[in-house]
Design a protein that fits this description.
The structure is a homodimer of 320-residue chains. Chain A contains 12 helices and 10 strands. With 320 residues, the first copy, chain A, is an alpha/beta fold. Chain A has one domain: Aldolase class I (TIM Barrel, Alpha-Beta Barrel), CATH 3.20.20. In chain A, the strands form 2 sheets. Chain A has an 8-stranded parallel barrel, surrounded by 6 helices. In chain A, strands 6-7 form a two-stranded antiparallel sheet. In chain A, helix 2 packs across helix 3. The first copy, chain A, is globular. In chain A, 56% of the residues are buried. Chains A and B meet through helix 5, strand 7, helix 8, helix 9 and helix 10 of A and helix 5, strand 7, helix 8, helix 9 and helix 10 of B.
Chain lengths: 320, 320
Amino acid sequence: MPADGPKRVFINEVSTRDGFQMELRWIETDEKVRFIDDLSLSGVAKIEVSSFVSWKAVPALADASDVFARIQRRAGVIYVALVPNLRGAERAAAAEVDEMNLVMSSSETHNRANMRMTCAQSLGNFRDITTGFASKTITLNGTIATAFGCPFEGAQDPARVLGFAERYLEIGMAGITLADTTGMANPRQVEDLVAAILRRFPELPLTLHFHNTRGMGLANVVAAYDAGARSFDGSLGGIGGCPFAPGATGNVCTEDFVHMFECMGVDTGTQLDALVALSRRLPAMVGHDVSGQVAKAGAVWNLHPSPLLSPAGCDTAAHP
Amino acid sequence: MPADGPKRVFINEVSTRDGFQMELRWIETDEKVRFIDDLSLSGVAKIEVSSFVSWKAVPALADASDVFARIQRRAGVIYVALVPNLRGAERAAAAEVDEMNLVMSSSETHNRANMRMTCAQSLGNFRDITTGFASKTITLNGTIATAFGCPFEGAQDPARVLGFAERYLEIGMAGITLADTTGMANPRQVEDLVAAILRRFPELPLTLHFHNTRGMGLANVVAAYDAGARSFDGSLGGIGGCPFAPGATGNVCTEDFVHMFECMGVDTGTQLDALVALSRRLPAMVGHDVSGQVAKAGAVWNLHPSPLLSPAGCDTAAHP
């Protein structure tokens, strides 16, 4: 059952960061800027523009500063950068980002593998960053990656995740994202963890970041919504993903879950047509097909002409 | 929130009917029989083996009688055939099916396009079939296709769908399937319609048949489960689909939603490994990739070795 509260969700579009970082084909800075500028007109609440990681680690996003310098910022849209460390925070501040997204995994193993730090070291870094950079113009969001499961450790203890959320808030994060980094969450688990974190921190600006690695992405979005979540990361076309599941789909597809919310009578603030048009540009940009469904099948309200009126008739395959 | 009742669902595997009927490549009868025989060992409750439609309409299933004659029937598994008309029912009875699945669309337009009959004509036919063929050894199930939406007419009036359910039961159907033929249902609508039909017919053997055309398939499965549904059609690899959405995925993928239910602590009666192994045989049988995710990504409980122990190390892309 839906939680109380307005039927309104907020979309943080991450394709240009979480999607592009995985792509082997270099996407020209101009092309990224054009894409982000068009995204700014689509009604999304936030855009995770790029990542200030080392260009050696993520060459696809080596132009993060350039991209931020050249996009046209639109009032009402929050422009976010992923920041892995103090050096990244300095670059992000120089680029005048609106929000820094700091990432640590709840799984010690995953954090050491992904960030080359222990969780304690990450938290120490985060304290330096929030102390140094939280300002009137820059807010800090903290992501807890592998919050629902780690590909090395398995399911994560909700108490550990809640503990990290508490630490994040103590050291000055303004919002928290729970990320299902490798698509291991299931709807029951999502319902339980979202309800638990919102019970403990009722005013928390909470965002959910799901992957569709095992097909559960949209089911998890609904479960989170029903438990009270109102802010969701998504990636147009479902681009992005996880290096541990070759062939599997990546992030939940923005236009697919926006379409679902609209069908459910939940306002997303976005224009679906604009999102679908952007998604349809992606295969040419990234050089491969993408997994989004609504861009292929069309919205449910786009009806087809009756085949009874067509001289070609129709099949009689008895489709139930 | 989950409805009361045991955490147990029943799977009706439809790939060899709803999946194969869409395939252009002829699949040898022997290959179908081997596939169904292995399916019989996987723990599914029912198998929709084939369809007794005209071979001109669906050449891919022209061998329905042969397939039924050659499969090894396993006690506890119900072998179903789709039956479009009286002639099909005669052939199905001769083939000694356990269950006939009769199909009519709630949408008048879709029924005329798909079955070349009005809904009233379909109901008349069904009465003849239930009168002639319901027996100690043959049960009749009635499917209401396009129950959530029609690609020509749009959303369907729940009162009309409930009315057809009532007629189905009056004329002797033992169970009813609500089918989202072209993937137009959304979770809220599913919750409402399933709750409504189970309020009106609390003892009804109700099955839900979803398509993933717009990515909402598994979200709809959860919504139906939470509203009290306990029986689900699925298609291994998500094969099958709808001719009105080229490039879109088809039926909900059996192994993906079985995996989801197992993650949620809901018993499906099946062995996921057996279903995944069957799904992995499909691309070679049908000649193209299939859309299932778990067969690619693996179950969430199949953990990966820690990269910290590997001399190759791992990437540092800072994946949230």
